[in-house]
Amino acid sequence: MRSTTKNPLLKVVILGDGGVGKSCLMNRFVSNQFDEHSFHTIGVEFLNKDLDIEGQTYTLQIWDTAGQERFKTLRTPFYRGSDICMLTYAIDDKMSFKNLEMWRKEFAYYADLKESNQIPFIVVGNKSDVSSEAREVSQLEMETWCNENSITSCIETSAKSASNVEEAFKMAVQHWLRLESRADINETHVNDTVDLSKKIGDSNRMSCCVGGGAAGDDDTNN
Amino acid sequence: MNQLRKRTDLLGIKLLYKENRISKLLKWNGNRKKSTDSRIQQVDNGFFEKFGSLFREQAEMAQAREQEEQQHVAELAAQIAPKDEEEKEEEPETPPLVTADSEASSSDSESEKDDFQADFLAAAFNIDELYTEMLYVILHNVGCDVAFEVGQTALFSYAQDAFKIPNSKHRQLMDVAEQKEDPELIINVEVIEAKELRAKDANGLSDPFVTLYLASNTSHRYNTSVKTMTLNPIWEEHFALAINDKSVNDTLCLEVWDFDPAETVKEKFGKFFEVKGVKGMSKLVKEIAVTAATGQHENELIGVAKIPLSTIPASGMTMWYTLDKKNKVTRRGVLKVRISFSSGKNNQVAGQEHRHMRRIILLHELEVSKVAPYWWCENFTPQADQLLTQHVAQSGLTQTEVALCSYSVYAGIHQKHPLSFGLFSKLLEKLLKPLQTEIINEEDLKLFWEATRKLLPSCLSIIRKIRKKTTNEKTIMKQVMEVLKILNYIITLGPTDIDLFPSNLYPWITFHGNGPNCDIQGALRDAISKGANDWLNYIIENNTENGGTSISKLQNLIQMIQLIRSDLQKAIEYYDKFFIEHVNFQYAKCLYTFYQARVATLCEPDVREICKNLKTLDNSDYKFGEGFVNEDPTVDPLAEGTSLFELYLAIQRFVTLGQGLCPADYNSFHIRNFHQWFHVGVATWLDIAVYKALQRIEKAVELDPLVHIDSTVKYSSSAVDTLTIFYQVNTFWQQLNWPDVEGCYTFIAKIIDDICQCCVSYAKKMAARVDGLGHIENVYEKKFEVTTEWCLAINNIDYVRETLEPFTRDLGMEDILKKIMELKGPVDEKRCRDTLNTVISNAIDTVRNAIVELLETVVNKMIPSMKRLLIEGAELCDQDSNCIDRLMMYVDENLGTLNTELNEENFNRILEIVWESLSETINELIRNNLENRRPPSFFSNLHKTLILMLGVYKDPSDCNSCDALKRTEQVLRVNALETSDLIHEVHLELADKFDQFTESPYGEISFRSKFDGDTIQIEVINARDLAVMDSSGNSDSFVRIHLLPEHEFANVEKPKTKTHHKTLFPLYDETFTINLTPAQREIENGLVLLSVKDKDLLGYNNQYIGETFIRFRDIPCTSESLSELPQVKKWLGRPTSFDTDALKALESRQGDKQAKEFLKKFKNKITP
Ligand SMILES: Nc1nc2c(ncn2[C@@H]2O[C@H](COP(=O)(O)OP(=O)(O)OP(=O)(O)O)[C@@H](O)[C@H]2O)c(=O)[nH]1
Ligand SMILES: [Mg+2]
């Protein structure tokens, strides 16, 4: 249970083909467990997890979605209002990688993304523990695809061997921080009068976040 | 006992209180209905209420409502009923030949028309013969009842009218009839069939009929019916020709004619049908009769067969005869006849004759009486009745034969002028037993089935037109009942090898067998479907007018389903029992089976399409007070989604009906998975529900008067309104009644998440609502007062938060989880449960945070006033004691308000925030004022003020969560001390610290000490493990004794031991006695300091090894000698840092010499 301390809230959505290991990633991240015989997710699953980045604690609200086609209409309502979208595939499954495009589009459509520069995507190639013979997608392929789609963050993980899992989520938050700060800069540069409405929108979304200290912190990093 | 009673009393009170609260709430809600509720509804035109009412309807299945609906539907249906029927109803005076069954006649194929024509032509062709026979019957009336019934003259004139015989002809035929004697011998001729007839018409076919007569009497001709458009006609008609003695050498002539080749029968009838009506029919009969009788017709002879009677054996024979024509050698075809002799009139001939007569008379009767269609029920005029009765009697026909004749004749006429169905069912009832038991000859059987075949179209037509709204319902029901009786008789009598439902006549009947179709049940089923289908098509055609927008499309579908439902309702309530009773047929079920398929095919594509294109509603775009930004005005996503939902509910009700109606077939119905069509729409509905909820919440807050609903509760109207709104969302969810469990689970997660959004929104609106309240500004001051409104706002949000959990329970979460357990097993169930629980607790937390935020806002507003009052108190405390009073009053009032209004949890929470903020404020004050070198008295006053405040509202001991305040208080206390006290504070802190040592690098010291009166005795015994101080690994140590605080013992000497050289384990063994004044003895925190030093060779730069403190209060007061007391061992210590409040305070006293010197010494002592 989340305490009543007021950390910034981030809504994270994990997408990807059925069986690429989304639920495993989340469970590894949240409770450091791995289930070899994980069942397909029904609709959605939801968990909270606090994450410390540079002294600031963020509360991640993670929506793990069902990748199977038959759940499409059930998962899409959850896209809207999310801050980060993890596009996930399995490195031993070429098809799941090819489908990233589909997932990206599905998310953009149902999340009602307005500004194209506000892309809260991060690409995660899971099951990095598999033998090199089993690998079907190279790291280079992943990076190329990301470049083509102007996605700046990508990482290979293994929920099984617990490698890079926390890093992936950290990367996601940092990515979000970058976007936020850039958005802030844009706002102020473009038009000062918009500022007010923007603030309203912001506090709307981050209902429990007092002060945008997080975004400010990152400013200095850039 | 007493105690027990007290307990129950208490409980009683509690219960009462609770009840009271609820009932008041209800009452209050009830009272408000008119005012606030309706105003909130106005926001969205009663969106939820509309849904709610649909729900209620569904739940109650209220009959009243159903009836009302039915009436409405009936009206609707009446409006859309085909126009021509109405017209018919308006002009019952002119019974149309083509009846209500207009459709049947238009779709009926030629063959049926031909049947009908044949009958009439046959009658017409033999009209003279028939008339003569009729006259003969009248002349030879039998039975006693004749005289007083109808006079003979009346009968003659009736017959003449009926047969439309001109006077001259009448006289002529009368002569014939009068002379007619009972024949001695009769030759019976059956004209069976012809083959390979020569074509006479342009179309390569002929319309053949046969004329037969005896060569001795060419004027006495008999005619068969005309078979149209065929070269191989089958007649199977019977004729009886009387022969007298002299005609033994006579010849039987059979002429085959082509009927009026200039004008085919079809053409003639075509013309004639334009006239319509029984009248026209009679006219035609007459016309043909004249031409036939005179032989002056335009007909063309095909060929003749002449059979000398002498060639016929007495036992009779059946023969093919070749047709000849004068001067022609080409083949003209062959004719098959059966000929036999008998002494009386052959039964079959009599029957045929009777049928012809009955037909002519009925036509006449119908013409004269102008009886309306479906009405005539064998109510002949007395004349007609008598004529027919006489003919029956005189030709010796049995009752069965008569019934059969009647049945056959009526069925024929019924085709063009419908007669009462009751008539047929009665006839069938009469025929039932004979047909089942008696040996009926094949021809009669065939006659029966032919007639039945003619009767059936109108029967099925009644079934198909069951929805006809123009006739009164009773009539229709009666007709249906009679028709069902008829069908039942036919089923009982069947099957037959006659094709009752030729596919060209019934294109809509789906018959899969081979051979003749006499499957009445099947035909019935198809007729029901066809009728429903036609009706439905009519509705659809007439509904497409109002534009092609998806909303109108949906509305049309909804209306259609409503109409269908009420049609089914009627089927269930009225018709089903008839069908089951009479033909053992499940009418409603059959109808439902048909409708469900149609509804499915009609709705599914539209629904899927509309769902696919539904514009998503983005609630985050929702700006309060403005609605949605960037809203496309052409497509109202709300209206579209709402209509879609209405359709969903309509289909849902329809499906529920089917579940009850056809439990066995239900699983094969396509429509049972209708929800899948709407799948995509659900998300939109949820969005709409949230959107509506947000709108209403906004309105509820706006309308909230911010007063207690009543004295028992501590929240105001918007809290209850918001809760109501949540339950409206719940109602929506219940209505949706989503059948798919996985979907349910996911949607619930979404709803909870959405409701959380609503809660947060409510909290925001509430906060904004009270934000400006409580600010008081006048010439003297500017301050913030906590008002009841603020407290209500907080309570309201809390009230809403409290309801979150029960709300989620009411969504049916447990049920769904149970189903998941059944469907997927415990692992998935647990995952789903965990997810839902996390979402719920998240929602609750988020709202709790919103409350905390609001509490903070309140405190932040209070702080400036408190800060000002604190400063004033610190500055002026000594001169103006009012200051403290004012502060206390402010705090008292505001916290008082909060205390009475807020619940305990929130009050404690806000107190904590107050103390937290207060300690921040004070810390800031301390910092600022230290910088400004305020005297310790300032801090002392501040400290006093704080303690006072805390005393009122806080028990410092249970202040576990606000260490900050404790710390602040401590800092304040320290800063309030005079410098010398502060120094002593440092020593006391060190004493506390050293006491906790369990080891030390500086060594350990042993001593004894005691007070004896005002005298203190200290025995320094030894030390061990002293720190090494010189290069040789040893120390030259001694111990000096100080009494602290220093300024209190200024006159007291500071004795020391001897120096013990080169040892880390010195044995001092010296006792010191110091005399104190009684005041010194009583100093509260007095300390003895044992300071161990290393003696410098030169003696003036002694090195510090370590020290320890003995508290005065730890020293025993005794008269015993020291040696009796136990040794005390203490580890030596050194100060390690400056990090204490007292040292910090000292450091801040920059101008203070005493402080400066102390700090300098102190720094030297710190471990290097
Ligand atoms: N080798 C390997 N296997 C993994 C890893 N992560 C997950 N798996 C396996 O992949 C299978 C599917 O994992 P899930 O987490 O259930 O997949 P999912 O993406 O949540 O699938 P859906 O819920 O259907 O969308 C399981 O059998 C896991 O044991 C990984 O990092 N390495
Ligand atoms: Mg999963």
Automatic annotation (TrEMBL), chain A:
GO biological process: protein transport; retrograde transport, endosome to Golgi
EC number: 3.6.5.2
Family matches, as Gene3D superfamilies: P-loop containing nucleotide triphosphate hydrolases
Any matching Pfam family: Ras
Top-rank taxon, per record: Eukaryota
Compartment list: Cell membrane; Cytoplasmic vesicle, Phagosome membrane
Protein name: small monomeric GTPase
Lineage: Eukaryota, Metazoa, Ecdysozoa, Arthropoda, Hexapoda
TrEMBL record, chain B:
Annotated keywords: Cytoplasm, Endosome, Exocytosis
Main location: cytoplasm
Positions with biased composition (Acidic residues): 84-93
GO biological process: exocytosis
Gene3D superfamilies according to UniProt: 1.10.357.50, C2 domain (2.60.40.150)
Residues in C2 domain copies: 168-292, 1001-1132
Secretion signal, residue range per the UniProt entry: none
MHD2 domain boundaries: 881-986
Coiled-coil intervals, chain numbering: none
Subcellular location: Cytoplasm; Late endosome; Recycling endosome
Chain residue ranges for the region called Disordered: 80-113
Ranges of residues in domain MHD1: 645-766
GO (cellular component) term, any one: recycling endosome
Superkingdom to which the source organism belongs: Eukaryota
PANTHER family according to UniProt: PROTEIN UNC-13 HOMOLOG 4B (PTHR45999:SF2), UNC-13-4A, ISOFORM B (PTHR45999)
Entry's family note: Belongs to the unc-13 family.
Protein name: Protein unc-13 homolog 4B
